[in-house]
Design goal:
The protein has 246 residues and is of the alpha+beta class. The protein has helices at residues 2-18, 35-38, 44-47, 152-159, 217-226, and strands spanning 55-56, 60-61, 68-72, 75-81, 86-89, 94-98, 101-111, 117-118, 121-122, 125-132, 138-147, 169-176, 188-194, 202-209, 213-215, 243-245. Bound molecules: zinc ion (ZN).
Amino acid sequence: MLRQLSVITLSCLSLVAFAEGPHWTYEGAHGPAHWADLDKNFAECRLGHAQSPIDIRNTRIKADAPDLAFAYQPRPLAIINNGHTVQVNETGAGTLTIDGHVYEIVQLHFHTPSEERIRGRAYDLVAHLVHKDEAGKLAVVAVLFKAGHENGALKTLFANMPVGAGPEHSVAGVMFNPADLLPAARGYYHFRGSLTTPPCSEGVAWYVLKTPVEASRAQLALLHKLYARNARPVQPLNGREVIEHL
Ligand SMILES: [Zn+2]
């Protein structure tokens, strides 16, 4: 018991060192149902009315919904295991333009299983590609993964992935292009939502790509081993409309 306790204490300390703000988790007393109680800055996790993730069920097909124009380029890989997820920090890796509005990619990270559900179904894994515009507004593109062929982009990331939580790890000589994570088809579901981690801030534009990409069962198992479940439960829609781009 004592031994178990000291392990827990140590892992909490390491989380404090590498993640900002109060300690939060995906289960137990610091889990999603309690995030709002952990810090006054987390109040939106409970009080917000446009929270993410959601279960995507009813959509409005919009024939003239804008295309997602990705213009990514390879950059030296900078990867971090921050105690909540594996994250790739991006600097100068390019832009996402939507209807003339330009966002720069700032980071991408993973959740297992997928936080978003499509008509009730969660996928094995999701990548969230986080973009920011000049005013600081966020647009997140979600790429769903299902079991299938080995994924080349994940192979590069996993070969350089820190197993324990720690600071950013720059990998000499390894280049990574976030475009390698995208499916060929770019149809999406769009809705207004929030960050899916504390402080759950709203005003985030979500674009969930409809076409999943594949990863091998071994790759999915590897992420699952690191983070057995780092997905926030789905949140009420509260009358929000989901736009579908064909
Ligand atoms: Zn995320």
